[in-house]
Amino acid sequence: MFFRCGGLLPHLSTRATHRTYNYSMVAPPRIHHAVDDNTGEEEEEWQLLGDVPFRKWACYPAPLPCWDSLALEDHIVVGAANGGPLAVLRNEKRQVMMTGAERLAGFLRIYSSAGVLLGQAPWELGRKVVSMGWTEAEALVIISETGHVYWYTLLGQKMEQGGGSSGSGSSSGSSRGGGQGARGGEGITRLFAEGSPRRVIQAQVWLNGYVALADDYTLHIYDGSRANPEGRLYRLPASGLSGQRSPTSLALLQPPLGGEEEGGNGGASSNSSGDVLQILLGTSDNSLLVVDGARGTSEVYNLQSTLPGPVVKMSVSPDSRFVGCFAEGLLTVYATSNYSKVLDPFDAGTSQVPAAMGWCGKDALILYWKAMGLLVVGPYGDFLHFPYAGEPLVLIPEVDCCRLWTGGREGKCEVLQRVPAATESIHRIGSTEPAAMLYDAMEAFEKGDPKADENIRSILASSSSSKTSAVAGEGSSSSSSSFPSSSSSFASGSGGGEKSQLHGAIQACLRAALAAWDAQRQKKYLHAASYGKSFYDDEEQQQSGREGRGEEGEPNEFVDVCRKLRVLNHLRRSDVGIPLTAGQLGNGGREGGWGALIDRLLLRRQYFLALKVCDYMSCTREKEKVLVQWACAYLQSRHAIVCTDKELRDEIRRKVNSAFLTPSSPRSSHPPYLSYAAIARTADQVGRRGLATMLLTFEPSPSSQVDLLLEMGEFNLALHQSLLSNDLDLAYRALLYVEAHKPSQETFLRLLSLHPMSLQLLKVYYRSRMTREERTPWFNVSLARGDLMEAGTILAFQAYAQER
Predict the structure, then answer these.
(1) Among 668, 665, 569, which residue's Cα sits nearest to residue 616?
(2) Order of all β-strands in the sheet with 75-79
(3) Contact status, residue 507 vs residue 439, Cβ threshold 8 Å
(4) CA 443 to CA 376: how far, in whole Å?
(5) How far is CA 349 from CA 272, 310, 330, 367, 445, in A?
(6) 362 neighbors 13 (Cβ within 8 angstroms)
(7) Integer Cα distance of 341 and 721 in angstroms
(8) Is the pTM of this model over 0.85?
(9) CB–CB of 445/452 below 8 Å?
(10) What is the pLDDT of residues 270-279, one digit of tens each?
C-alpha cells in the first residue's frame, strides 16, 4: 500500500476534513447523505478515493451503434486523446470465425467516441502488429513486426509519413547511426532494408511520431514536432541493452505541450532533459534504462532495491513528471526528475500483467484486468474498484480525466474524472465557501425564500474582512510540496489577496459550469453566477479595476464561458462525437485551443460546423482556412463533375462572400486577403485549368498568382500579371522562368512580342551580364527577331572587351 510521503503530488493529497473512508475490492459506495439542498443532485454521483472525490458518467450511453457488428474482445483498440476517434483492428492472436470477404482480408475501422463509423480501410491479414496509436494531429500510426509503418487519416485514408498527404513529413530528414527509413509505397515506411531479418520487438506512438526498438537494440525514432516541421527519422543505439539486460517494457517521456505547465517549480520542465523526448526501457535485471532522444546518451537506474522483479508495464503521467511501474503484482511510482521512489509499492493482489494501464489526468493511476475489473489507485494506498470483470474495456487517458470504452450489449463511452475544485467547493457537504453560499442563495431566490438575501449579505460582509484573512492565510495555505494542484486553475471561491469574495464565488460558478457535462447543471451554475453579478456593486468593480480586470472583464468572461459551453455541447452530440472538456480544449494551444479544434473538424470534413465555430468565436484566420479547404474538397466531389467552370467559380465566390457577410457591411464583405492559390491549384490538379485561371484573378498576392501560373504553364498570363504588379523582382523571375522552360525559341519570341515591356527588361538584364567569353542569350534573341542593329552592337561590345 502507498504510504504518505512529503512533497508528493499535492493535487492528489487534498484532504477533506469531514470524513474518512476505507474501501475494499468491491464496488465503491456512493455519497448519498446530502446535508444541504444544493448538494444532493451532484454529490450522489461522487465516489471517494480516500478523501478526494471522483465522478463517473456516461457521455454516450448504451448501446453504441457499433456494437451490432463489433466484438471488442477480438480486436486491438486504441483511442486518440482529447475526445478523439478510436481505431479498431482485428487481433490475430485470437481465433475467431470470419465470413465473407474477411476470410482473406480484414479491415481497419475507425469510430468516433459515440460509436459512429468514420472510415475504414482494407487490412492484409498476417501483418503482426507490434503497436499502433494516434499522433497529436489525429494521424493513425501502425507499426508491424517486420518494420513497416503505416499511416492513416481518421477517415481511413492512407497518408504520407508525418501527416501530410503531399509527403511533407517524409523520412528524408537527417539520420544517425547508419541510415534512415525507406519508402515502401503510399502511406508506408520501411524501417529495415528489403529482405532484412531484423524485427521490431517494442514500439510506441507519441504525439509527434513514434519510437520502435529493433531486435538488434537499435531505436528508430520519428520526430515530426515543431522543431522538425519536415519530419525526421533517425536511429539511436540503446547502448545499455544486451543479452543479459534485455528489454521488458517501453515508455516515453514526451516534451510538455506549450502552456501545459501550471507553475510549480518555477515552470520547470517535466523531465530532466527539458523539451527532449526520452525513452524509458525496463530491463530484465530490474533496471530502468533512460535514452536521450536527441543525443543518444543512456543512463541506467538500478531499481533492484525497490522492485521485486522486471518492469513489465509502464505508464507516464500527462505532465511527464511521474512514471508508474508494474512488476510482480506491485505498482510503484517514480519521479522522472531523478527516478527516485516517491510511493511505496501498492499490492494489486495479482501478478498478472494488466491488460491496460494509464493515468486519470494527473490524479490517479488506473489498471484494468479482464478478470478483476477496473482499479483506480491514489497516492496514499486508497483505491476504487469498478466491477468491469468479464467485460472488454478500453482505457483512453486524458489530461484531466480518463475515457472508458466498454463493449458488450451494455457497451458505452464513460468518463472518469476527479471532481474539479470549483465544483467540490460548491457541493461539498457542509461547505461554507462563498461559491456554495452563492449557489444556495440562487436556489433560495428561485424558490422565493428570504434566505437568499441572508447568504448574499454574508458574502458581501466577508469581503470586507477578506484582506486580513487572506494575508493571514497566505503563509499557511501553501503546501509543503513544490508541485501545483491539477485543479489550481479552478477558483474555490475563497478569494485571495484583495480579491472580492463575491467575485471569487462568481468565478467558481463559471468554472463549475465549464466543468459540468449536463446542460441543465450548466444552466444552474450560470444562473448562480448571473445572480451574483447583479450584486457586484460599484465598490467591488473598483476593486477589480485595481487588479487589472477592468469593469468590463466580468461581463466579458461570463459571455465567453457561455459561448464556450455552447460550442462544447454541440461537439459532444453523438453525430459529431467529440467528447471534449474545457480543459482539453484549452490544451490545444493555438487561438486558445480553437485553432486546433478547427483543424480537427476539418479532418472530419465538418466544414459547416467549423465555419460556424469560427463565426461564433471570431476566429478570422481559421475561417479563411475553412473556406479554402471546403472549396478544395468541393472541387474534388462528385457534384463538381457535372458543373461548368463558370458555375463552380460563381458557387465558390458566392459561398466565400456570404461567409463574410455582416449586417454592418453587407456589400464590402469579402476579405481582400483571402488566398485563392490553393483552390486554383486543386482545380488544376482535377483537370480544370480554365477554372484555375479564373480563380487566380481573385488572388490578392501577385507573387502567389504568378508562381502558380508558371507551374501550370500559363506563360502568357504569368508574364502579363508579373508586369502589371510593378514588381521588378517578380517580373524578372517570370521572364527567366519562361526562358528556361520555353518549349521552343519561336514560342518564346512570340511571347516577348506580346509584351514589349519584357523585351526592355531582358535587354537591361543581359547587357549588365555581358561577358567576353560567350555570347549572351540576348544576342540569339536579337538575331531571331531580325534586329541586326542590336546584334551588331552586342558583337561590338564583345570585341572591345577582348584582350589584345
Answers:
(1) 569
(2) 75-79, 86-90, 105-111, 117-124
(3) no
(4) 35
(5) 33, 17, 8, 12, 52
(6) no
(7) 69
(8) no
(9) yes
(10) 454 556 889 9
Lowest mean per-residue pLDDT among 148-162, 378-392, 630-644, 659-673: 659-673
Q: Give the residue-averaged pLDDT of 563-575.
A: 95
Give per-residue burial for 605-622: e unless 16+ CB within 10 Å, then b: ebbebbbebbeebebeeb
Mean pLDDT over residues 142-160, rounded? 93
Confidence band for 495, pLDDT divided at 50, 70 and 90: very low
Please count the other Cβ atoms lying within 10 Å of the Cβ belonging to residue 298: 17
Q: What is the pLDDT of residues 101-143, one digit of tens each?
A: 444 457 899 999 999 999 999 988 778 999 999 999 999 999 9
Treating both helix axes as pointing N-terminal to C-terminal, what angle do 702-712 and 677-685 enclose, rounded to 10 degrees?
10
Rg (CA), the chain: 32
The mean predicted confidence, pLDDT, of the chain is: 79
Residues 204, 252 contacting (CB under 8 angstroms): yes
In DSSP terms, 234 is beta-bridged to 221
Cα–Cα distance for residue pair 692/549, rounded to 1 Å: 50
* Residue 163: DSSP 8-state: S
Q: Which residues contact 290 (CB under 8 A, 6 or more apart)?
A: 278, 279, 280, 281, 298, 299, 300, 301, 339
Smallest CA-to-CA distance from 238 within 254, 225, 222, 250 is with 250
- Written as nine digits, the cell of 333 is 511510482
134 and 81 in contact (C-beta within 8 Å)?
Answer: yes
Distances (CA, A) of 375 to 308, 347, 372, 787: 21, 11, 8, 90
Give the single-character DSSP code of 369.
E
**Phi, psi dihedrals of residue 504, rounded to the nearest 5°:** -65, -35
C-alpha distances (whole Å) from 108 to each of 151, 448, 534, 804 are 12, 59, 55, 79
- Could you tell me whether strands 313-316 and 200-206 are parallel, antiparallel, or unpaired per DSSP bridges? unpaired
Q: For 160-289, where are the alpha helices, taking DSSP H only?
A: none
Asked if residue 164 has pLDDT above 70, the reply is no
Q: Which helix (H) or strand (E) holds 330?
A: strand 330-335
In whole angstroms, how far apart are CA 185 and each of 143, 158, 167, 340, 481?
Answer: 15, 10, 12, 45, 52
Q: Which residues contact 778 (CB under 8 A, 6 or more apart)?
A: 762, 763, 766, 767, 770, 794
Instruction: Please tell me which residue, 459 or 220, carries the higher pLDDT value.
Output: 220
| Neighbouring residues of 245: CB distance < 8 A, sequence distance ≥ 6 | 283, 284, 285, 287, 289
SS3 track for 625-641: HHHHHHHHHHHCCCHHH
| 578 vs 800: CA distance, rounded Å | 77
Which residue spans within 646-774 are E strands per DSSP?
A: none
| 597: its cell numbers | 479544434
- How far, in Å, CA of 445 to CA of 27, rounded? 38
CA 357 from chain centre, in angstroms, equals 21
Polymer length in residues for the chain? 804
Residue 53 main-chain phi, psi, to 5 deg: -80, 140
The amino acid occupying position 461 is A
